[in-house]
Write a structure and sequence with these properties.
The chain is mainly beta. The protein is 0% helix and 30% strand.
Amino acid sequence: IDLVGLEGEEERQAAAGDTGSLMRTGSVSIGGGVRYEWHLTSPELTSTEMVLNGAPLRVDPVTGALPMPLEPVIVPIGSESSLVLAPQSYAFVVLPEAAAPVCMHQ
C-alpha cells in the first residue's frame, strides 16, 4: 500500500472504510499481526532534504547509494492502530498477513 498525505496543516488518518480525502482503491480486512511503515517527509515542499521515519535520509557522498537496509517502523495491528500520515508526506506500508487475493501467489 502506498499513501500520500494531501491535507494542508493537519494529520490525516487512514483506516478501513475511510472515504475522506485520500484516494481509495479498495480495502483489506486484517485480523492481526503487524504492519511495516516507511514514512517520507520533507521540511518544506521545495526542500532537497528527505526524512525517513524521522531521521534524515542521506546518500553516501562517495558511492551515491542509500544506506541499507531502510528500516521500517513496525506497528502491531489492533483496534487502535489507525495509520496516521503527516501533511504532504508519502508512506509505504506492508501488510504481510493481509492475505489479499490479488497479492496471493498460486
